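> Could you send the Putative Fumarate reductase prediction when you get a chance?

Sure thing. Input:
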Amino acid sequence: MTQEKYDVIIVGAGLAGFAAADEAVDNNLKTLLVEKGKTTGGTGNYVEGVFAADSEMQKKDNATLDKDDLLKEELTYSHYKADGKMWQKYIANAGKNVSWLEDHGAEIEMVANLGSGARTWHLFKGKGHDAIHNGLEPYAKKKGITIVTLTSVTDLKQNSDHTFDVTLTNVVAKTTKVVNAKNVVLATGGYLNDQKLLEITPHQNPDNIIPVNSGKNTGDGLRLAWKLGAKKYFTGMAMMFGGQLKDKTVPSFKLWGTAIWSSVCDQPQMWVNELGERFVDESAAVVNWANEGNSMNRQDRVFCIFSQKILDDFTDKSYPRSMKPFVPEDRYPTLRDDIAKAEKEGRQYLHKAATLEELAQEIDTPNLVAYVKHYNEMAANGEDTDFHKPAKYMLPVDGAGPFYAIELGVGAYTTGDGLRVNTNNEVLNTKGRPIAGLYAIGGDGSAVLYGDTYGVNIPGTHAGYCIFSGRNAIKEIVAQK
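Output:
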């Protein structure tokens, strides 16, 4: 039987994978797109939007941004661990990539900022799901691409002519076949769902990290590249976005955005660690969810502590930090009922007790009672002498019981390290030389962008990089033909 041969095989059918796929079919490359899941899109289905500094939408609104300033911001934010050359190339092409997305069926609804950050976020209509399934995927299919699902790339061997023998394994039937490719593009999304890899990564507390993604980012692309001599390149970047309700029995995406979640993660209430002591100015943390995640990640356990009075006030009256336009009014009308429902369902994250002493015992926080007394005294005096939180956010945890503790983990979307690439997204070996024909894009090849933290002050940069890197890799393949 004649072996199937391709110009390029793309491993992973998420946002980056489809960006590469569309660029490949536009350049008449015989392309195979391989997806281990039953459905395509991966974590890209949940993406809100992509970065650009000079898109046509920004130009129409006279809202273009200084590219040099953006570059300096990203380099400074990463403490110069980011690759300045890659950032320059990415920023220079980002606006064109927005237009390219629209030409390939993805609809951009508006340009926005996140909090006080730069207005760089080009939000998809229908999020990444619609951009992929109503745009990039049908475009690639119309152009004749081959897409296989429920198929893993389980082995990758490079031949003497630098082509690759790629072993494809059906994840259901366990059957295998080997095909040949001149080039391989890794787009498997990083390793956020691989607990063992998280454990060896700097700066992480994997027991506290709650992945809010497709669940399929298990480091497949990294392992394939490492087997071929790629450099292991860890910076410790997980794209953290603040607290998440910690309950292993419920998919995290079902809890994100609920009234319970917002009341304890968006509102600057009292957060304590495993000792029952505060560890941050909660109001400063919620302004930037990367900072919120970092501060929580340093603790072994995290709880939001509040009283029945606070619960009732948040439900019936108001809460202190406005969440408009995300929450239409300055209260959570369903909060009390949602807490009662969670209690009835026995949710792991919820703890309730008649007294603070009983609550402290239940969640094993030995200093909680003493610290709450201290916190309430600071609230009465109108001054947070521990962390200088503004007085308006110092809500005393007092009154009649019951009292509540909501356990939190740190939500994370993706990782930003694992493989080192050059400005053409070629995977580099331990000597810094390209492995011929091997490319990494999206989460598999994003270590060039980050230090240990994703910068939410310039939103959309990771999703935008998925588009940029996918196209960038294919352009290099075409250049080398």
